[in-house]
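W.,

You were right to be curious about this one. When I first looked at the sequence I had no strong expectations either way, so I just let the prediction run and decided to look at it fresh. Below is the sequence, 323 residues in total, followed by the output.
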Amino acid sequence: METRFLRDLEVSAIGYGCMGLTHGYGAAPERSESIRLIQSAYDMGCTFFDTAESYSAGENEKLVGEGIKSFRSHIVLATKLHLSGQEENENVAAAVKSHLEASLKRLGTDYVDIYYHHRIEDDNRVEEVAGAMGELIKEGKIRGWGQSQATEQQVRRANAVTPLTAIQSEFSMMERMFEKDVIPACEELGIGFVPFSPLASGFLSGKYTKEQTYAGDDVRRVISRFAPENVERNQPLLDLLHALAQEKEATPAQISLAWMLHKKDFIVPIPGMRKVARMEENFGADSVSLSEEEYRRIEEELAKITVYGNRTDKDIAKLRTMK
């Protein structure tokens, strides 16, 4: 794969979102298979791996740490912390460092390349978190830091204290709200942008129908774009992708990722993949190039399409009480 830069960190143009290896999309692969998948991703040229302390209560970090062990020094590893309201009201710097130390132990490493503030629940502490991250960079515990789902003003305030490496937020053909202000701010400030759910939880692969059902902790049970009526109403978007894929001898997923890669050279998507075939497909999007004319045509067609349904933390939280 080609490489890109998240500020000063060089990564593969497409990274690996590892959350689904332990939860979020129904039954997870066996541990040995998940480790094989992580190692296969590296063999395919992926050098950017993403996890978080909140994924399966730390188990995802342990899995990723084991999977990358043999090539740790050759990749960029990202994880995230979630500060509770109580922690944000106390000693922020101590809380951030404590969370990081726990993550480092689970990951089996002595540093993290990008340490994200997972969600910003207290807007008043943005500068304090940024300051704490700056101290960790000086100590060599992290190489860079970022925010997730941050607003433009939060990005600017944080970056003024400790320059941000990357912003990780949802972005796809079905969710473009950060295109209005956050992505332009990242371009202005030299910050990378890392889209999670770049295929809209798989919707843009075109592999799902309104008849499909989901069970367990599968987020598609509560993400409204997967409601049967919305699968049907969003068909024009899938029709567009299928038509373009046929023209380019690619797949809908590859067209979705190629569109994103063409948009800005500091955008690095991190799709989640639980099968080697999906890795080959998604990483293969790196070789699907769009001309300026093709890109403009996609933008023009997307402007005519209404997207139904979305993905929200509030909806996903409903899974905790569902049987």
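Here's what jumped out at me. DSSP finds 13 helices and nine strands in the chain. And, maybe more interesting for your project: The first helix runs from residue 31 to 43.

Coffee later to discuss?

I.
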